[in-house]
Amino acid sequence: MDIAGLSIGLSQMKVAQQASVSVLKMAMDNMKSQSLDLTKILEVNTRTMEQSVNPQIGGNIDIRL
Question: What pTM was estimated for this model as a whole?
Fold first, then answer.
């Protein structure tokens, strides 16, 4: 059994695993950013749709003392 070869192999596996974890973290961050953007877009679209269905709501304020 070659100890040096085994050591090099294990080291290469560790580097490959670290690279895989790094790529997965980048993908997760990207997906988080995209989901936040999608949530904002859906909120704006929901308000716009509600305003088009009920245009009279929220247009005037009636204040009496």
Answer: 0.59
